[in-house]
Fold this sequence. Notes:
Distance between the termini of chain B: 51 Å
Strand content of chain A: 15-25%
Largest interface: A-B, 28 and 23 residues
CATH topology of the largest domain in chain A: Rossmann fold
Low-confidence stretches of chain B: 1-23
Number of helices of chain B: 9
Strand content of chain B: under 5%
CATH architecture of chain B: Orthogonal Bundle
Structural class of chain B: mainly alpha
Order of helices and strands of chain A: HEEEHEEEEHEHHHEHEHEEHH
Number of domains of chain B: 1
Radius of gyration of chain A: 19 Å
CATH superfamily of the largest domain in chain A: P-loop containing nucleotide triphosphate hydrolases
Distance between the termini of chain A: 22 Å
CATH class of chain B: Mainly Alpha
Mean pLDDT of chain B: 84
Oligomer: heterodimer
Helix content of chain B: over 70%
CATH superfamily of chain B: MetI-like
Bound molecules: adenosine-5'-triphosphate, magnesium ion
Structural class of chain A: alpha/beta
Helix content of chain A: 25-40%
Amino acid sequence: MSETSVVTNESATESTTNNEDAIVSYKNITKSFGDVEVLKGIDLDIKPAEKVALIGPSGSGKTTIIRMLMTLEQPTSGEIIVDGKNLWHMEKNGELVPATEKHLREVRGDIGMVFQHFNLFPHMTILENCMTAPIHVQKEDKASAKKRSIEMLEKVGLGDKLDNYPSQLSGGQKQRVAMARALVMRPKVMLFDEVTSALDPELVGEVLEVIRDIAKEGEMAMVLVTHEMEFALDIADRVIFLDNGVIAEQGPPSKVLENPDNERLQQFLHRFRG
Amino acid sequence: MTPKGQAPSTGGLTLSFNESNKYKGVITISAIADIFPALIQGVEVTLKVLFASIILGYSMAFIAGFCRLSNNIILRSFTGFYVEVFRGTSLIVQLFWLFYALPMLFNFDIGSNFWAGVLAISLNYGAYMSEIVRGSILSVAKGQHEASTALNMTRFQRMRLVILPQAVRMMLPEFGNYLILMLKSTSLVSLIGMHDILYQGDLLRDANLSQAPTVYLLVLVFYFLMALPLIWLTKKMEAFSKKGVATQ
Ligand SMILES: Nc1ncnc2c1ncn2[C@@H]1O[C@H](COP(=O)(O)OP(=O)(O)OP(=O)(O)O)[C@@H](O)[C@H]1O
Ligand SMILES: [Mg+2]
């Protein structure tokens, strides 16, 4: 399984430098909750179609990093650029001012997210969960949104559950619906926040399988916060180790996960490998 | 009712109970036949007050509930004041204010005792139920807001498509209970001269005091019969609301 994806990793080493062609750039991002500085200056470029795995100890700020890109959390300082557009600031009379809701909506349309706890809409069927946003947000016509949603649900193996409600599904099935719901919006960047950690162990496989399939298709960039090291090794172009609010080490998975320089990362991996 | 083996003595007791009641007035079939048609006349008034109060009361609940969630501090405090005043004072006093006091003080007339009654009930119950509206909206899980933001919905779409449909499911069982309370409180309009069921009952009692037990028994039955469909509706709403809510 892992040989094929490691071959696609040549580009990963240079991606630490600033790139104009990045789909997402974090520029010196800091984030504090009250007096606690959780992120202490993050610089990060993500290339189109790049698969990035974000690892690190609990509380190191992994979730916070991706939530800021989804506009669920506002950075304390720094800029995030999405496809050339400043996410949290906009220009007004030649000055940078805090983004309005309208501006946020214009920029975050390229971003999608899958959550640890699925967050499916419990009052809607599986199909409605998927087709609501294309119809109302992207103004797609109903027939086409429905058709694409069904195709997407078939792709994640739930073509026979269209009219079921989320409460009738297993955790693994719910998470696959959540992925289909995000995918029908055709984002350029998809964020995954520990999407298997709320699942029973026997259900983890089916969800990882779907992510693997999505990753193979290629064109979408993916940022995965994960504790599944084998999986990261398998699908990621680049692994980033976050520690104490900074990027402590990053590089191709074969290097970061198998031959790390950072001492804290060595300890961290040791705990996982047992 | 009677335990076996004590038949003779308790039999005698029951008899004397009936005897003694005879002097105070008893419930007889013939009296029921007289009273029933008179009370029926009050049903229409009671139902009219009820339906108007339901429509206005729930509207008030949503308006005040949303105002209390607004970002506008003036709107929020003003609505908060309204809610506390109407929850903190009694419905009868509010009714008398609207019907007697306000017209005298400000020289404006609500127009009819019907609207005074409906307004008092709606404002009172609207105040209580606005807390349900507000509380339900607030208790829809944070993850639901986040998922709809991640799908790039507008603030309005998030409310309309995701939050409110779930919040309403939480409101329904409570709303059902208030429906029945509202029915019962409509009887207060008899105090401002409306000819509802209770008013008709009072008239009959005034005409013939010995009929009072029968009259008020029938009044109870009438209210209970009107409450039955509301109780049934509440059960339905509870069942419906069990599906499809994500709370924190
Ligand atoms: N809304 C918040 N208010 C206050 N503190 C917060 C908030 N969100 C996160 N934090 C704190 O910020 C730090 C980083 O949190 P974050 O969730 O990003 O970590 P994480 O790396 O995702 O951890 P985990 O592996 O446990 O999910 C933690 O110490 C957390 O307690
Ligand atoms: Mg996390």
